[in-house]
Amino acid sequence: MSAELSPQDADYQRMIAAEVHIGTKIANDQMKDYVWVRRQDNVHVLNISKTYDKIMLAARVIAAVENPADVCAVSARPYGQRSVLKFAQYTGSSAIAGRFTPGTFTNQITKQFKEPRLLIITDPRTDHQPVKESSYVNIPVIALCDSDSPLEHVDIAIPVNNKGRYSIGLVYWLLAREVLRLRGSIPREHEWEVPVDLFFYRDPAEIEKAMAAAPVVIEEPQYQAGAPGNWEGGEAAPVEPEVEVGAGWDDAGAGWDGEEGAAAAPEAEGW
Predict the structure, then answer these.
(1) How many angstroms separate the CA atoms of 233 and 231, rounded?
(2) Which of 90, 118, 193, 239 sits at a 20 to 30 Å CA gap from 64?
(3) pTM score over 0.90
(4) Angle between helices 78-91 and 165-183 (to 10 degrees)
């Protein structure tokens, strides 16, 4: 790997803090190359160095697609739905969050029919339907694979803990940042201004609890004199001539036409 793409210490610290390297107690034969060690509790630990290399490789493949909308990120797992939506927002790709409708890639009659050139899968086991359909139409697949994930019809496997909310969000954040760097949208020497917290799953119950605990402040509108739409200080209304009580039009000193009406008033005495 070139010196320009060498991993930073901060990225490794983020990956360890998000438990990207924590696998499962079961290891697939095809995933044993990505396992670093097995702990005493039979939990397999993934090699984060290979995880970082696969993220760089996947980012190069994604950046090579001419139209960003031809890249489709799929996640049926709840922890990855927010991540794929944020990834699609910042990279310009499309996303399918939630249940995948069978026939989306193969049945042209369906309203959700898509023809992507590249597919990104959060879990090959949970998202087995889009992986199976992609094999029918020759769509390459990039998958986030745990130690027990099947690698059938998967072209690029990123070894990662795909069952944790922080692990999934961090990997998609690293993937989106590297894609934008390869496209030249953000400089490599500066940190990406988008925080990684935006890619993490948020529990709806926690959001409602936070909104209920927050005080509701209702600000009363303040009107300023002379502002448009103000009842007290809007545009100046036309001033009508003051007329004394009991006086007629002739006594007011002005008629309908102002001074000319006042001058014509004595001629009307003969009537």
Answers:
(1) 6
(2) 193
(3) no
(4) 10
